Amino acid sequence: MTCFICSTCGMQFSERSDAPSSPPDACPVCLDERQYVPRGGQRWTTLDALAREHRNAFQRVAPGLYGVGTTPSFAIDQRALLVKASGRTDAAGPFVLWDCIALLDDATHEIIRSLGGLAAIAISHPHFYTTMVEWAHAFDCPIFLHADDSAWAMRPDPSIRVWSGETRALDDVGAKGLTLIRCGGHFAGATVLHWAAGAEGRGALLSGDVLQVSTDLKSVSVMRSFPNSIPLGAAAVKRVGAAVAPFAFDKIYGGWWNRHIESDAHAVVDRSIARIIAHLEGNVGPDAPAAPAVRE
């Protein structure tokens, strides 16, 4: 069976019934205004081809939390997170895979198995769906997607569990203290993961780019499209802030290596949301100071 992968966004597609050895005609994810088709046109690969040229790297991010990402970079180049499903940071696995990356090779499978395997997969939004079905089959676990985004899954499978509403605790799959929170914004069902045991019990958010950790590591941003610079309206931004407001969290782990808010993360989100809304509503406060004069 040949399930082609979009080289631009990483989405894996079901095999074509009319032409099993041919890639899809187009990638709907890339045709959407939030993503893009490269100037040279749509490109495709397969899992076997990807494994020949890439490998995955692991990093211990924090107690009970590991990162896994592909090198050299592929597609959107996010890294996934493995968070301890027990709700503790010192207990044995299994883990929940938060977000997903396209490459799943033998080495990755063996390493994760040795750590305790996967209890579940949960994904923030369609740009990170990638080869989620391959991962679910390899580790015999369910995938949790929000109902508002599930139509974007290009490889339907019984392992996908669609949830609806504003929050979804993962206790029923043995992931105590892990809660999915629908924020909307970037996508209608865009979700973050609250980890109650994170940050030494002060709580942490795993945010993908629903709440994207900014380059300064002191703020977060929310957008309809980051690559195409499409903003959200003020109401949508307020909703993102309101969704996470009831939860305690001192850290945020974003969607890329070393994109973390290390402390006081709840206040960072509050300030960031307020700043974005002020700009959207034309109320940005005092004028910026003049640029310093250039000395000859």
Give an overview of the whole structure.
This protein has one domain (50-280): Ribonuclease Z/Hydroxyacylglutathione hydrolase-like (Metallo-beta-lactamase, Chain A). It has seven helices and 17 strands. The protein has helices spanning 28-31, 47-53, 106-115, 132-139, 198-201, 234-244, 265-280; strands at residues 5-6, 44-45, 55-62, 65-71, 80-84, 95-98, 118-122, 143-146, 160-163, 167-169, 178-182, 191-195, 204-208, 212-213, 220-221, 251-254, 260-261. The protein has a seven-stranded mixed β-sheet. Helix 6 (234-244) runs antiparallel to helix 7 (265-280).
What labels would you give this structure?
alpha+beta, six-stranded mixed beta sheet, 7 helices, 17 strands, globular, seven-stranded mixed beta sheet, 23% strand
List the helices and strands and how they pair.
Blueprint: E1 5-6, H1 28-31, E2 44-45, H2 47-53, E3 55-62, E4 65-71, E5 80-84, E6 95-98, H3 106-115, E7 118-122, H4 132-139, E8 143-146, E9 160-163, E10 167-169, E11 178-182, E12 191-195, H5 198-201, E13 204-208, E14 212-213, E15 220-221, H6 234-244, E16 251-254, E17 260-261, H7 265-280
Parallel strand pairs: 6-7, 7-8, 8-9, 13-16
Antiparallel strand pairs: 1-2, 3-4, 4-5, 5-6, 10-11, 11-12, 12-13, 14-15, 16-17
Helix pairs in contact: 6-7
